[in-house]
Amino acid sequence: MAAKMELAPLRPWDDFCPGMDRFAKPDFGDLTKWNNRVISNLMYYQTNYFAAALVVFLIVGFLNPFGMFLGGAVVALVFGGSVWAGENKATVKNFKRKNPALFVIGVMATSYFVLSLCGGVMVFIFGITFPLLLILIHASLRLRNMKNRLENKIEGVGLKRTPMSVIMDLLDQQEELYE
């Protein structure tokens, strides 16, 4: 039976950005462990990440509303098309599963190309790419704690369904694949 969708709680600031002792450089030699850390943090801090991205979207949207709408529409269409292709084309699905970072970079590069034709590159860079970069940096550097791991296990067995778990499913990225 499918679990109903629920929003993960907003994590307190002292948990989201504690002292420097809870941040560490990822092990670039072990991509599986690094990917596991990123997925785990994306799942645990998802509401904080959505809130931070929303703040940047609102600021850029206030400065250039049409460009932000155009950029968001293009990225949504390209992402939707890539997810559709991943579900219906075996080669795309295999590529997406084996190279998740390259897949996301491909979606962003395609979005950038389409937006460059429309003249919305700066809005794309500051309104869409910059928040994603900040989220990736935080998720890569933030060390996990026991509460983080427990919450992710609950979502992993399907007892809880959140917006980030839906996005991870669309990208074929589940934490249990990397443990």
In short:
The chain is mainly alpha-helical and 179 residues long.
Helices and strands in order:
Layout: H1 13-16, H2 31-44, H3 46-63, H4 65-88, H5 90-98, H6 100-118, H7 121-141, H8 146-156, H9 163-170
Helix pairs in contact: 2-7, 2-8, 3-4, 3-7, 4-5, 4-6, 4-7, 5-6, 6-7
Describe this structure in words.
There is one protein chain. This protein is mainly α. It contains nine helices and no strands. Helix 4 crosses helix 5. The longest helix is centred in the middle third of the chain and has 24 residues, at 65-88. The chain has helices spanning 13-16, 31-44, 46-63, 65-88, 90-98, 100-118, 121-141, 146-156, 163-170. The protein has one domain (31-169). Keywords: Acetylation, Cell membrane, Cytoplasm, Cytoskeleton, Endoplasmic reticulum, Membrane, Transmembrane, Transmembrane helix. It comes from Pleuronectes platessa (European plaice). It is a multi-pass membrane protein.
